[in-house]
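Study this chain:
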Amino acid sequence: MATLVSSQAYIYHCHLSKRALIQTKGPYSFRRLSRHNHIERCELSPRTWTLTISRKHHQPLSLNTVCFAADEPSPPSSSSEISADARIRSEVLSPFRSVRMFFYLAFIASASLGGLIATSRLIGALANPSRSGEVLEIVKGLGIDVGAASLFAFLYFRENKTKNAQMARLSREENLAKLKMRVEENNKVISVGDLRGIARLVICAGPGGYIEEAFKRSKEFTQGLVERGVVVVAYATDGNTPILEFDETDSEDEEMSQSRRRLWRVAPVFVSDWERWIDEQKKLAGVSSDSPVYLSLRLDGRVRGSGVGYPPWQAFVAQLPPVKGIWTGLLDGMDGRV
């Protein structure tokens, strides 16, 4: 009975790790020694969890529990859905857009009403020969009304198109802010949005060899990147863990190693969410799905720039202001165009 209770508690522990298990591409297993001197072996896969309990001398007991994952991971949110945070940020970035769009609609309605009245007057003047002298003046007024309605309609639809494009971009940035990362120093899981105002993220997404080469190319600019609050998120799209070597042979190398660890100290978790977001950006940009890409974020979390290939570390050092010193706060927004 005690063994069954311990097994049920162990199964519950496996249930708490279900979301992380869904991200794995293949089953894996681990063992532990229970307090009842039994060996518990748990085989984990995205769909099934198998728990086998054996005695210490590998004599299997009669208990073999298989747990099926009943519920699936939450479906991805559609890119057409605009979050409330994205709407608020859009209003902050363009506070008078709603006012402009309101007046555009009011002018369109006024010009349309004036055109309708002018059209009725024109019909009456054409039907009455005694009013033929008013035709030219009525046509002139009708032309002004049609031109005004067309102009303000053009301005309204252009403003609305800009608004929709900005909302879609902000919505993608909000989805990016929800992606999770793990800090290597303390294994704490945080989101991208937690680093707003603290660090400038640079996301490197590509095969393991691409990550290793980007790591080597950043060595020369490590100190400058750290002073500018740059933190790199390395996402290996092929599933191979990149080997990042930190030299610690002497005191000088140890100081450089610490700076490089600060620069490359976060790693993505729940990689399927990262893969889905990056694939969506590649489709919007017309980039092939197997191309290695990078994205650099501003201090406020907005996307500063992106491209195919290796990040321009030297350009980051030249263009970004330091996060500490006399210019702190004054140049926080000078991260370049969005």
Summary: The two ends are 63 Å apart (CA to CA). The longest helix spans residues 135-177.
